[in-house]
Amino acid sequence: MSGKVHVMDHPLVAHKLTIMRDKNTSVKDFRELVSEIGMLITYEATRDLPLTTKEIETPLCKMDAPTLAGKKIAVVPILRAGLGLVDGVLRMVPSARVGHIGMFRDEETLIPHVYFCKMPKDIAEREILIVDPMLATGGSAVEAITEMKKRGCHAIKLMVLVAAPEGVKAVQDAHPDVDIYCGALDSHLNERGYIVPGLGDAGDRIFGTK
Ligand code: PRP
Ligand code: URA
Fold this sequence. Notes:
Blueprint: E1 5-7, H1 11-21, H2 27-45, E2 51-57, E3 62-68, E4 73-79, H3 83-92, E5 97-98, E6 100-105, E7 112-118, E8 127-131, E9 134-135, H4 139-150, E10 156-163, H5 165-174, E11 179-185, E12 188-189, E13 195-196, H6 202-207
Parallel strand pairs: 1-11, 4-5, 4-6, 4-8, 8-10, 9-10, 10-11
Antiparallel strand pairs: 2-3, 6-7, 12-13
Helix pairs in contact: 1-2, 2-3
1-O-pyrophosphono-5-O-phosphono-alpha-D-ribofuranose binds next to strand 6, strand 9, helix 4 and helix 6.
């Protein structure tokens, strides 16, 4: 069975994505929106976190109130562009640890290359949320998930802002145990491996490098 694809069905996400897609949106606004949508998708990606209860006292009475069961989480951005999403995730899950995986895709072959990997020591015990704004051919995400599994991780989710059907299929084929959370599922990839309509090069737009 394939992993599920959760496409955000929310007016705030749709509205913010439209501003991001607009080529006239500034680097500052683009960066802020990546973080804001990151926060909103985190809300959905953490829906299944286990709860326990603890006794507290409200001004009126005692109650057994719900509280997070303390599951250990690590957010893993795929550098560079994934960095833009970390802040949004951490605002929702402040106790999460952060592991970094550096990867770029060769512009000719579209094959991803890993150039950096630094994870928390107890990464194998943590639930992993890999974050990257773009899921295009899926090469980078598939490779990042493989790297995490090599390190003993088994509960992995992937969070992206925009996905192409080609990338979704690649992840589902290679890692059927991984659910994908995305802001939008776009039409297709162009001949250069860019998502259409997409939002262009996410890394360049977050960091202002073009
Ligand atoms: C972009 C993006 C993803 C990857 C998606 O990164 O942030 O990591 O491409 O493409 P894929 O699904 O076809 O692998 P890029 O390689 O441009 O590096 P950057 O984040 O440093 O800009
Ligand atoms: N990487 C990006 O930043 N944008 C795309 O459309 C595809 C890959």
